[in-house]
Design a protein that fits this description.
The chain is built from five helices and five strands; from the N terminus they run E-E-H-H-H-H-H-E-E-E. It is α+β, with helices and mostly antiparallel strands. It has one domain.
């Protein structure tokens, strides 16, 4: 268990809170600060879900009409997503200055699609280098470095095609650029305040 005091500073002010993080990483060579800093990356899974739903499916629904067909389609989407993410990771591994988050899933998908359409590697005199081709496209078109931002926790309004009638109905606050400072604290024996 790691106890950390996290201070977030934005143009709206400063907020400090103490957190406890339970981890299964038991290797003493991994610094607690690194584990706490990586916890901030947990929302990247939401980006993965968006890639699957919006980019891979293009807003369409699954086409299969049977449970077996739906399962097959979902597996195909997940395998394709994983293959493209591995290609992006492999491309950025060679560049330690580049965060894998900067690799565009859309660029990787389009590069793979173009290779399939061109039947690269199918014709005998072509060279099969799908991952290299995807990687070159990804590295040539890196996304900008993500800014550290924070959104206040609020109750989100259900998705609706209608615009909220007034600003007071907006339940999501504005997002602000932020700086995060993490200080590892000794484990407290008393419970944290609610």
């Amino acid at each position: 268990m790691i106890t950390a005091q996290v201070t977030i500073t934005t143009s709206e002010g400063r907020r400090t809170q103490t957190y406890r993080l339970v981890t299964t990483v038991l290797n003493p060579n991994v610094p607690a600060l690194e584990i706490v800093a990586l916890y901030h990356q947990r929302w990247e899974i939401e980006t993965g879900f968006a890639e699957l739903k919006s980019t891979s499916l293009g807003g369409r629904v699954l086409r299969s009409r049977t449970p077996t067909g739906v399962a097959q389609e979902i597996y195909a989407l997940l395998i394709t997503h994983q293959v493209l993410r591995i290609a992006i990771s492999d491309a950025t591994l060679a560049r330690p200055d580049v965060d894998p988050d900067r690799g565009s899933f859309t660029v990787a998908r389009n590069a793979a699609r173009d290779q399939l359409i061109a039947a690269a590697g199918v014709i005998a005199d072509t060279v099969i280098d799908l991952v290299g081709t995807i990687g070159r496209h990804v590295l040539d078109q890196l996304l900008p470095t993500r800014r550290t931002r924070t959104n206040p926790r609020v109750v989100k309004r259900a998705i609706s095609k209608y615009v909220a009638s007034s600003a007071k109905n907006r339940r999501r606050g504005p997002s602000h650029p932020a700086t995060i400072n993490i200080e590892i604290r000794p484990i407290l024996t008393a419970p944290l305040p609610a």
